[in-house]
Amino acid sequence: MFALALTAVGAVVALTQPWLTKTLIDKVSNEGRIGGLIVALAGLFVVGAVIDALSQYLLERVSENVARDLRKSIGKRILSAPLKALSRFRSGDLLARATSDTTVVRQMLSTSLVQLFSVAIYGVGTLILMLSLDKTLLLVMVVTIVVAALLVVTVLAGIRVATERAQGAVGQYAADLERILGSIRTVKAFSAEEDERTRLDASTDEAYNGGLRAARLGALVSPAIELAVNGALLIVLLLGGIRVAKGEMDIGDLVAFLLYATYLVMPLAGLFGALATLQQGLAGLQRIEDTKMLGSERRRDYEDRGAANYNLHAPTSIEFKGVTASYDDERNAIDNVTFSLQGPGIAAIVGPSGAGKSTIINLLEQFMTPSSGRILVNGASILDLDPFDHRRMLTLVDQDSPLLDGTLRENLLYGRIASELAAGDERLVEALVQSGLGQFISELPNGLDSRVGERGHALSGGERQRVALARALLTPSPIYLFDEPSSSLDVENERLVAEAIRRLAKAHLVLVITHRAALIQSADSIVVLEGGKVAGSGPIEQLSDNDTLVRAMKGAS
Ligand SMILES: Nc1ncnc2c1ncn2[C@@H]1O[C@H](COP(=O)(O)OP(=O)(O)OP(=O)(O)O)[C@@H](O)[C@H]1O
Ligand SMILES: [Mg+2]
């Protein structure tokens, strides 16, 4: 607000200058004493310059603030969005919206809004002063300019459309790049560089064309207005000259009028230039606003994150009652699934690939919602809980054992709140030893401070899997979910992992998805899935004649 007020003051200061000039000329012609006025004029120039600099800085600061707030809100929106909503966007495109589009909006604010505002003040002030000087001349000017403006407005709509297209293409480019970087090994292994480059070039060209079209239209705007205003100026000069010659007008008035008229030229050209930038900024703002449709799965703000308020050692139960769920609303990934698990102990979910095992975990984590049926944890329907609170009861080791770029220590302590971060290095190392990484950690030159690489890819698949397990062992929760925790492990390490899981299951409910005999044999109860349906459930003795189970165990041992 202060910035805008300052701009206003700057405009007023600038506007008094021609008036002083007029007084000056009048005085020269009448009296010849002008020293004081010259000083006043010089003073006004200096004050005007200082105010200009200050107001420009303050307005830039406002635009930076807006850009920061937009980026923060996009970040928050992405973090609280349900997975299903996120999957409707390509991640690269979201990145572009958060970076490139917010930059466009910032530019709009720092350039065009400032211009629009000062033009409004200059314009109105100038018009009033010109009105007091000569009404006829003003009328001539205004008519000429309005005609030109009407033509320009049609161009502005085109700029907006072109910019939206260009920014969309930038998003596409970012998404394509992200796709390539995420699978760079596959791209190279299949010699697909040329194909990928063609794709990239297509979106780059699209952005270029959109940008160029907006630039072409934008380039038309200022000269058109300048031509109109300068034309008007010439007419004023002509008419004014005649009137001065006839003695109907003072020469001082004409000079002041012409000065004000030139004051109008630049801001007016600027005004329409600013309107063009405004269209571009609005296009960016639209793309940012579109991320609102991500929605939020949170029912309360995620800042208020306290210690979890569940009882770690109370017995725990998980129940699925006639649960049906689908990813694409066409094919059911699981169909009318019913089972009941009671902790503490190990519950194994077995079944062929694609049977819907990971889907059970996605449902438990509220990564997706069932189309029908109920899921109860400790007797309460999980859909009645805030996903944020609910997930803190669960510790997940996902199928592809994801780690985050950073050090081993950061990964082991990931997501812990300050009060839980007290784990000393001995506990971290102990968890690694239990997961079969004792040798590994003792040989690392930087120990726990070694970096794991993007998505943990500086580690082998089996190492990654065991770090993920160690992270779970360090995380206190009543329920643990393991999706194929030993799929990349050799027999010896698998034995260690099975042992760690058995220890964990003494006090907690551990749900393990596995094809491995060692883990299946440790299970207190088993759910056999086949084609999205339950093909049997209960203790292993009761299921010994189940084909799927027998095949699962044979296939692995
Ligand atoms: N994100 C997804 N979008 C669409 N369909 C999916 C998605 N994830 C899984 N599916 C489909 O849902 C079905 C069940 O998948 P799920 O991942 O639960 O199988 P799974 O039993 O864990 O298999 P695997 O042993 O290979 O991990 C499969 O037919 C799969 O193609
Ligand atoms: Mg799976």
Question: Which descriptors apply to this entry?
Answer:
binds adenosine-5'-triphosphate, six-stranded mixed beta sheet, Rossmann fold, four-stranded antiparallel beta sheet, ABC transporter transmembrane region fold, 2 domains, 557 residues, alpha/beta, 17 helices, 62% helix, binds magnesium ion
Structure description:
- This is ABC transporter ATP-binding protein.
- It is a multi-pass membrane protein.
- Its main location: membrane.
- By secondary structure, the chain is α/β, with parallel strands linked by helices.
- Helices cover 62% and strands 11% of the residues.
- The protein has helices at residues 2-30, 35-80, 83-86, 91-133, 135-182, 184-189, 193-246, 251-289, 357-364, 387-391, 408-412, 425-434, 438-443, 461-473, 491-504, 517-522, 547-556; strands at 317-326, 332-342, 345-350, 372-377, 380-381, 394-397, 479-483, 509-513, 525-530, 533-538.
- The strands form two sheets. It has a six-stranded mixed β-sheet, with helices on both faces.
- The N and C termini lie far apart (73 Å).
- The mean pLDDT is 85.
- Adenosine-5'-triphosphate binds at residues 327-328, 333, 351, 353-359, 399.
Topology, element by element:
Layout: H1 2-30, H2 35-80, H3 83-86, H4 91-133, H5 135-182, H6 184-189, H7 193-246, H8 251-289, E1 317-326, E2 332-342, E3 345-350, H9 357-364, E4 372-377, E5 380-381, H10 387-391, E6 394-397, H11 408-412, H12 425-434, H13 438-443, H14 461-473, E7 479-483, H15 491-504, E8 509-513, H16 517-522, E9 525-530, E10 533-538, H17 547-556
Helix pairs in contact: 1-2, 1-4, 1-8, 2-4, 4-5, 4-8, 5-7, 5-8, 7-8, 12-14
The structure holds adenosine-5'-triphosphate and magnesium ion.
